[in-house]
Amino acid sequence: MINYFIRRLLMVIPTFIGVTFIVFTITRFAPGGPVEMAILKYRQMQFQSEGGSTIGSGGTAISEEMVEKLKRIYGFDKPFYISYLLWLWKVVRFDLGESYTYSRPVWDVIRERFPISLRFGITGFLLSYLVCIPLGILKAIKHKSFFDFISSAIVFIGYAIPGWVAGIVLLVLFGGGSFLNIFPLGGIHSLDYENLTLIGKIWDNIHHMILPVFCYTLGSFATLTILMKNSLIENLAQDYVRTAFAKGLSERTVILKHVLRNSLIPIATGLGGVFSIILSGSFLIEKVFNIHGFGMLGYNSILDRDYPVMLGILVFSSVLYMIGNIFSDFLYCIIDPRIRLD
How far apart are CA 306 and CA 318, in angstroms? Predict the structure, then answer.
């Protein structure tokens, strides 16, 4: 088993290179890159300085020398594979480059967003498992009952609605726009946050987190609940469960001591996501709630063609997801000692 995990860890390297090479290559050939955007801004500035009368004429032309200079500035003056190797060498030395938009090291920009995304990610992750596992168990015990029918309807409705759509609906209903004024429209705290007491600050943070965290967990809520229910029902039909009941054990004892552990194995798949919870916030959800976390950073970097930030987020996400998958395999072995990974 140790050899298995060593092989999985070694596979991280070629997988990382493959993923980053593909994305890096796409950024080099995608239209509307930073060089094109810089040329467009230059032409717009020239057009405005000339009173807007020479657009499309020779007055808005840009020399080849300036184009080559822009390519050198943005690192587009070399073949893409050479640029990729240079970028990869910098990543190995923990240098993600400098953001085109913020004119700062990408590490610094990402480090600022880290606590925000971590807060929402951990909260959503814990709530998903704390609610879904007991609910899935209860639905399995009360299978085909009225409670099971009603809860399934609610779960599937929640699953069918994208988190960012639910965010817009919740803001309309409870954000003080057209109906109730219960929750803030967005952000992570109020404008007078610094003047609040400690209790006031804690409540202010919770107040701003309720709607976004609800939207974060909406999709995983349905998946985890149904997965837990189906896994428990499947295990309740096994021979060892009938044997346990035949011995006179109570339903509570059978479920908690004999069935629950085996039923948690599929759930363990998602636990590997604990390494990527800092990235679990949806781009669009953070945009809807004006949360300046990784999601908003990634969203803006795509719009601004800020390739160093995009690739920096890719480095984070790819490494964390791969380590998370390995962690899930490790949890399989912890939960069920019968599993042997070779």
Answer: 18
Question: Which residues are CB-neighbours of 88 under 8 A, at least 6 positions away?
Answer: 17, 20
Q: Torsions phi, psi of 331, nearest 5?
A: -65, -35
* Contact between 232 and 142 (Cβ < 8 Å): no
- Contact of 285 with 215, CB cutoff 8 Å: yes
Q: Contact at 8 Å (CB) between 308 and 229?
A: no
pLDDT band at 136; cut points 50, 70, 90: confident
For 249, phi and psi rounded to 5 degrees? -70, 145
> Which tokens is 216 given?
């974060």
Closest CA to 241 of 267, 264, 262: 262
What string of DSSP letters covers 253-287?
A: HIIIIIIHHHHHHHHHHHHGGGGGGGG-S-HHHHH
Nearest CA to 13 out of 88, 81, 80, 86 is that of 88
Whole-number Cα distances in Å, 154 to 159, 161, 218, 310: 9, 11, 11, 36
Give the confidence band of 273 by pLDDT, cuts at 50, 70, 90.
low
Q: What is the pLDDT of residues 164-195, one digit of tens each?
A: 888 888 888 888 767 888 888 888 888 888 88
CA distances from 114 to 107, 191, 307 (A): 10, 21, 19
Whether 309 and 315 have beta carbons less than 8 Å apart is answered as no
Structure tokens at 24: 């890096």
Residues in contact with 215: Cβ distance below 8 Å, sequence separation at least 6, in sequence order: 163, 164, 166, 167, 170, 282, 285, 288, 289
- Contacts of residue 318, defined as CB under 8 A and 6 or more positions apart, other chains included, come to 15, 16, 19, 20
β partners of residue 98: 105
Residues 40-54 pLDDT 10s: 777 777 777 766 554
98: left (phi over 0), alpha (psi -120 to 50) or beta: beta
Could you say which DSSP state residue 104 is in? S
pTM confidence score: 0.77
**Contact between 270 and 217 (Cβ < 8 Å):** no
CB within 8 Å of 9: residues ≥ 6 apart:
326
